[in-house]
Write a structure and sequence with these properties.
single chain; mainly alpha; Arc Repressor Mutant, subunit A; DUF7344 domain-containing protein; DUF7344
Length: about 120
């Protein structure tokens, strides 16, 4: 719908999620950050690198160890499995190991970018 309104398609390939799955996935800022980061990963990213980048985006470059620990804990306990289920990433070594981008990472990042350009 937005693509028709604004003259361009918001994503280059289909996102294979239901509306409810999509809304649930994108309702959390940390997951939105992870989606955009995973879309830029070409091969693999260590969990610690993803957590460091998300922490920087959320708290700025002067984040504290406690802030990073909080972000790491939520990713380890919750976000990695949700992102894995949504085909944004895969974590074959478990949530603390290496993370690989999957099919929905890029189109979801495109959608988030598109939404950002049309919202305040």
């Amino acid at each position: 719908m937005f693509g028709r309104l604004f003259g361009r398609q918001p994503v280059s390939s289909p996102i294979h999620l239901s509306r409810d799955e999509l809304f649930n996935l994108c309702r959390v800022e940390r997951r939105r950050h992870a989606i955009t980061i995973m879309a830029d990963v070409e091969d693999v990213i260590p969990m610690r690198t993803l957590v460091d980048e998300v922490t920087s985006r959320e708290f700025g470059p002067d984040w504290t160890t406690n802030q990073r620990t909080t972000v790491y804990t939520t990713f380890y306990q919750q976000h990695v499995s949700i992102l894995d289920d949504a085909d944004v990433l895969s974590a074959p070594d478990g949530p603390s190991g290496s993370l690989y981008p999957e099919a929905n990472a890029e189109p979801l990042a495109e959608l988030l970018s598109f939404i950002e350009t049309i919202s305040d």
